[in-house]
């Protein structure tokens, strides 16, 4: 979901001005396995006009308006291709390809997912080599004996037959063991050199795995593009899931991206309060569940970060919670005053949030009341900024500068 996905300069307008609204699918229910239909329908639907459909929101002081181009069934992530088209994941188990001509199309070949609660089909990202090989990465909750597990897969977006499909899908990583619980994390970010990737892995509402040095849960993972532990990981020679760990002590990381200087930034949901913006450093432990700037849901206190200096403290935190999701470091020209800022969505906070970054420090800047849960934030190849609304009729919306 992010700045690392917007590495080309092709214009998006010709592709997305003609998008049609997608109809919402039917939820498969708590804990069910959703397997996509092998041959999706591709019927044409009416296209909106060249400016999209205006969307109202409470923040009258915002320097932007919103235009909606499509709606989805519980969307999780949007990622833009180099030619300006977009891929959107729906948690029940569908990928939509949005392009010109008002034809949002189901992509075939999506793996079966364990849909329910916070699980399902999650993040999606074109490979750094997409222009050459049409590679796609996706994360999801994978069905298994005893529950579900976070999985990362690679496939090729094949459009040669007229109907797009994910071909040659290969699972690169499975978090083990499977089990119950949400908080998958699941966000994919590519290293600035395009030679490796990072994957955020939540602690599945189990707390203690975040401090388990042999568990991939509650960690930021670092691996090669073909799914092997990266050789520069702190414990690369130890084998097992430990070999993948880049940082530890995370709760539910729903945003992960690099800035232009190569710093890796992450957002994660705290418990009752204590949502965080973190600068992710190799081998560091961020303290969950030993420390937090929030409290447990039952009201019992958790020691603050400053009581345990051995843990890395967040650069910013929010109390009460905003439930951050979706993160970009903005580099476009529509809002020049935001360049270099972290832009993130808020779900329970129903807001769009800006934090100013100065090297490795951060400060709160703006928080606009959107009146809706913002699930993802993405920057398109032309530098425009897009939001994805959470829910069973979640809209894909573009920020348009006022004036």
From TrEMBL:
Domain Glucose/Sorbosone dehydrogenase: 72-398
Composition bias, Low complexity: 34-54
Keyword line: Signal
Pfam families in UniProt: GSDH (PF07995)
Region described as Disordered: 27-58
Source organism, top-level taxon: Bacteria
Keyword check for Signal: yes
Signal sequence segment: 1-20
Name of the protein this chain belongs to: PQQ-dependent sugar dehydrogenase
